[in-house]
UniProtKB/TrEMBL annotation:
Residues 133-371 form the Radical SAM core domain. InterPro entries: Elp3/MiaA/NifB-like_rSAM (IPR006638), Methylthiotransferase (IPR005839), Methylthiotransferase_CS (IPR020612), Methylthiotransferase_N (IPR013848), Methylthiotransferase_N_sf (IPR038135), NA-bd_OB-fold (IPR012340), Ribosomal_uS12_MeSTrfase_RimO (IPR005840), rSAM (IPR007197). Catalyzes the methylthiolation of an aspartic acid residue of ribosomal protein uS12. Residues 374-439 form the TRAM domain. It comes from Bosea vaviloviae. Its EC number is 2.8.4.4. GO terms for biological process: tRNA modification. Keywords: 4Fe-4S, Cytoplasm, Iron, Iron-sulfur, Metal-binding, Ribonucleoprotein, Ribosomal protein, S-adenosyl-L-methionine, Transferase. GO terms for molecular function: 4 iron, 4 sulfur cluster binding; aspartic acid methylthiotransferase activity; metal ion binding; protein methylthiotransferase activity. This is Ribosomal protein uS12 methylthiotransferase RimO. Belongs to the methylthiotransferase family. RimO subfamily. The keyword Transferase applies.
Length: 439
């Protein structure tokens, strides 16, 4: 794996509509691990979002493309001038791709072709979409880069450095533009979302006409005012997370927390050097559910970490049965090149044993999930539609993030479109998915 994230330089010309497109392209690329470069020369690729409204705007666009060609050479052109590609091709036959206005998907595909995203399950925050792009009705909002923790199985701090938070004003403006562009659900991501702002001492920045601190709670509160679904990923159970639970109960943000616990046994957590690991986590979960009974917690775990014993596995499974987490994923430990865990000198767990532990874990969780999912039968819930269908549309509940959690299959007499939020009466459930009728 290349240690350096691909860098994109971006020039945005033109009207507010073009800016919204630029924002959408940048958000999408940022969520896939691309970084923005301040100069063309230091970038792997340049995107020029052009304006072709007046002759002077066309001239300015051609000039910007010319500068990008000479300073970098790898250039993708989009925006209004892209509607007349001949003019651009005549002047610059070597541009990599030309796409028209409001075609953010084609720009992002062109970037993937020229500088492929480096999908690595150990590093990436978003699921591997392959060639599929985030639909227009939801978007990932990346609030920071890097991480101050030093989990022993992880090389992200080495690759991406320490936490660098984006000022909250900038993040909220990006969110606002996405909402104006039709996004109905924002998925907040970073390596450690609850640590947001720590590196800049929670510095205030301007948002609308007031100062807002760059902090997890303020971020949740402000995003919660935007009238869309807001989902929080990669949250660690630090004490201040308690503050956002009432916002979930009030319906400002979704009653959903993605907390990568990774394990429950204190010995393993210590060897993993996990942040905020404490034996009172179960108490915290209980307290959160008292405040917001609707809360769904999703998590991931690793079995077979070096030094993990039979007792540790049993502890984890007993913990899981008590925690009753709604959505859970589990990985078998794989050493990552360069990670400190390789030098801990702990006994490696044999492959067959990892496999056996994984099956035990999954079996225990399947029983828990099935019970939780079955409890939803007969209820009326809100569902966001992801894919329209002739008779049955595919969507998600508030407790399901795209790609990683379950689906709700919705039968409806009226046609449903992607991005619609509808009330659905749940009629049946299978292991992970729900089936119901739009009411
Ligand atoms: S919290 Fe741990 S696992 Fe997550 S990015 Fe930071 S060091 Fe890696």
């Amino acid at each position: 794996m290349n240690a350096v994230a691909p860098k994109i330089s971006f020039v945005s010309l033109g009207c507010p509509k073009a800016l919204v497109d630029s924002e959408r392209i940048i958000t999408s690329l940022r969520s896939e691990g691309y970084e923005l470069s301040k100069s063309h020369a230091g970038a792997d690729l340049v995107i020029v979002n052009t304006c072709g409204f007046l002759d002077s705007a066309k001239a300015e666009s051609l000039e910007a493309i010319g500068a990008a060609m000479s300073e970098n050479g790898k250039v993708i052109v989009t925006g209004c001038m892209g509607a007349e590609p001949e003019q651009i091709r005549d002047a610059f036959p070597n541009v990599l791709a030309i796409t028209g206005p409001q075609a953010y998907e084609s720009v992002v595909s062109a970037v993937h072709q020229a500088v492929p995203p480096r999908h690595d399950p150990f590093v990436d925050l978003v699921p591997d979409h392959g060639i599929k792009l985030t639909p227009r009705h939801y978007a990932y909002l990346k609030i920071s880069e890097g991480c101050n923790n030093r989990c022993s199985f992880c090389i992200i701090p080495k690759l991406r450095g320490d936490l660098v938070s984006r000022p909250i004003g900038e993040v909220l403006r990006e969110a606002e533009k996405l909402v104006k562009a039709g996004v109905k659900e924002l998925l907040v991501i970073s390596q450690d979302t609850s640590a947001y702002g720590l590196d800049i001492k929670y510095a205030p920045s301007m948002w609308q006409d007031r100062e807002v601190r760059t902090r997890f709670f303020e971020l949740a509160r402000e995003l919660g005012q935007m009238g869309i679904w807001v989902r929080m990923h990669y949250v660690y159970p630090y004490p201040h997370v308690d503050e956002v639970i009432p916002l979930m109960q009030e319906g400002l943000i979704l009653p959903y927390l993605d907390i990568p616990f990774q394990h429950a046994s204190p010995n393993v957590l210590k060897a993993m050097k996990r942040p905020a690991h404490q034996d009172r986590t179960l108490d915290r979960l209980r307290k959160w559910r008292e405040i917001c009974p609707d809360l769904a917690i999703r998590s991931t775990f690793i079995v077979g970490f070096p030094g993990e014993t039979e007792e540790d596995v049993q502890f984890l499974i007993d913990w899981l049965k008590e925690a009753k987490l709604e959505r859970v994923g589990c990985f078998k430990y794989e050493p990552v090149k360069g990670a400190p865990a390789n030098d801990l000198g702990l006994a490696l767990v044999p492959e067959e044993e990892k496999e056996a532990r994984w099956h035990r874990f999954m079996k225990a969780q399947a029983e828990i999930s099935t019970r939780i999912v079955k409890n939803r039968v007969g209820k009326r819930i809100s569902v966001i539609i992801d894919e329209a269908g002739p008779t049955v549309a595919k969507g998600r509940s508030k407790w399901d993030a795209p790609e990683i959690d379950g689906n709700v299959y919705v039968a409806s007499r009226r046609p449903l479109r992607a991005g619609d939020i509808v009330t659905v009466k749940i009629e049946r459930a299978d292991a992970y998915d729900l089936h119901g009728v739009a009411v």
